[in-house]
Amino acid sequence: MISVNNTQLTPCSNISSNCVVWQGPDIPCISLCHGDTISDVIAKLAEELCTLVNATPTNIDLSGLDLLCVLPQGTEAPTTIEAILQLIIDKICSIVPGEPYVLPDVIVPACIDPLQPTLRLDLYAAYLANKICANIASIIIIQTTLDNHESRLIDLEISVNLLLNATEEKVISSCLLNGEVPISELLREVERVLCNLENAVGSPALISAAINAQCIANDTDKLNGTGTYSSIPGWVTSPETLAESNKNLWLVVCDMYAAIENIKLTCCPGACDSIIYDFTAALIKDSQDIPISANIVFETSFIPVGYTDCPGSSKITITDKNSISITTLFPIASTAGSPTGIIISLGALFKYADLTVLVEFCTTNDTHTCSESITKIIPSDLICPNDLNLVSATTTSLTVTFTNVLGTAAIYDIQLVAVGTGVIGGSALITSPGTTVSQVITGLTSGTQYQAEVLVSLGGSGKNCGNLGNPEFTLV
Question: Which of 131, 126, 124, 77 minimizes the C-alpha distance to 105?
Fold first, then answer.
């Protein structure tokens, strides 16, 4: 600035800028106030100008700029004002006046056309229009089909009503008469077969007398080994059916056989008298109570010093109800007296019925060879649903739910029985069940208490699980 004493300003009068006052409004952004001197005003404006001229990315925030439409794909955004302005100028210069607009590509959903990932916008619109027209045509066909089904259902209802009002209903007999027969004819055949069966097997009173004729008590000592008959795996302490009584009978016969065989081997003093062959057998089950292996323990066996295993002779054979077996060799000389058992995987054996364990022992001292075979039963049974639940579906139906751990070959016969009267309100036969079963049973009576009775069968074995679920579920 020219100093106030510069004589070249003549004839102007010399006035200091500090003496001239700013009469304008306050300007907060540069801290300028009404009443400041002109010197302050010019100094503050000069400072702001210098700041703007010397501006760098560190003091100017460029993060809010959206440069996607001018930024080449894959290029990083510039960080200076000069570079941003040049990028905008280059983009404007690249625009050719009068150049036609190019329609963008649209991503085609895979559910519409998996073979065309993208289409131009106009082609995509035409494609959608064709799809809509095709859907409309399909809907018309579906509606026609539904109308046709409704007509058939009406005809079916009429046929069913006519059949129900017939003089006598016919049923299909798959066992006794093999065909469609009147109910009265099937009933007569059932009576004839039942009478023949009773004459051959005996009346219920005779069967009950045969069951009660068991002379071996639970506390009777076994003939083979130690312990009572009630300690034999599978022994039924209070048999109520012919099957349970026959099972006990076979256990006694097997025990007698083993005792007689032992007498034959040890009746006279010999080199094998001091040897004790014995074992216990139990099932190992997983968290869902499914048998997975058998544990054979020889803690009660005794092999004297000097005796070793006969080469390849001591073996364990486990047989299921279908006569399928698995055999494992084992060293009796080293396992006798040990509480640690031999774990044998059941593999493909049928695990839901009693398993027969045959152990063939053989030891030798190079002079004498001693051997014995012992058979025992490992009891097993089908698994009943442990989480069966009844849930109200409607005022005349219930939904039965439970978890199936027996696989798709299991069959469940479920009956809903009225509490107090024993009348079966409804039933369902469930075949090929999944892991989770949910079955609606209809035809029930509102206001009645029901409980579920379940019969499960698998691979020819059956088990009556009795009453399961909510014992007194009342329909409202």
Answer: 124
Percentage, residues of the chain above pLDDT 70: 88
**Which range among 245-249, 356-360, 431-435 shows the weakest confidence by mean pLDDT?**
245-249
Q: Going by C-beta distance under 8 Å and a sequence separation of 6 or more, which residues neighbour residue 212?
A: none
Sequence-ordered list of residues with C-beta below 8 angstroms from that of 213, at least 6 positions apart, any chain: none
Q: Tell me: the pLDDT tens digits for 272-300?
A: 888 999 999 999 998 888 899 999 999 99
Q: Domain coordinates of the chain in residue numbers?
A: 7-93, 171-201, 217-378, 389-474
With b for 16 or more beta-carbon neighbours within 10 A and e for fewer, the 300-317 pattern comes to ebebbeebebbeeebebb
Spatial CA neighbour of 387 closest among 402, 397, 400: 402
Alpha-carbon torsion, ordered 87, 89, 92, 93, to 10 deg: -110
Residue-level pLDDT at 349: 92
- Using DSSP, state whether 357 is helix, strand or coil: strand
Do residues 450 and 444 make contact, with C-beta atoms less than 8 angstroms apart? yes
**pLDDT mean over 363-385:** 91
- pTM beyond cutoff 0.85: no
Exposure b/e, 454-467, CB count within 10 A at least 16 = b: bbbbbbebebebee
**In 269-318, which ranges are continuous DSSP H helix?**
none
Residue 297: in which H helix or E strand, if any?
Answer: strand 291-297
Nearest to 356 by CA among 320, 406, 313, 399: 320
Q: How many residues does the chain have?
A: 476
pLDDT tens digits, residue range 127-148?
888 888 888 888 889 888 888 8
| Beta sheet of 436-441, edge-to-edge order | 389-394, 397-403, 436-441
Contacts of 296 (CB under 8 A, 6+ apart): 279, 280, 281, 316, 330, 341, 342, 344, 357, 359
8 A C-beta contact, residue 35 and residue 22: yes
CATH architecture of 389-474: Sandwich (2.60)
Residue 76 scores a pLDDT above 70: yes
Q: How far apart are the first and last CA of the chain?
A: 103
Closest CA to 327 of 309, 307, 311, 342: 342
CB atoms within 10 A of CB 361: 26
Higher per-residue pLDDT: 378 or 68: 378
Q: Is 24 or 315 the better-scoring residue by pLDDT?
A: 315
DSSP SS3 for 417: strand
How far apart, in whole angstroms, are the C-alpha atoms of residue 412 and residue 403? 12
**In sequence order, which ranges of 224-268 are alpha helices (DSSP H)?**
242-266
- What the block records as the tokens of 258 is 């083993």
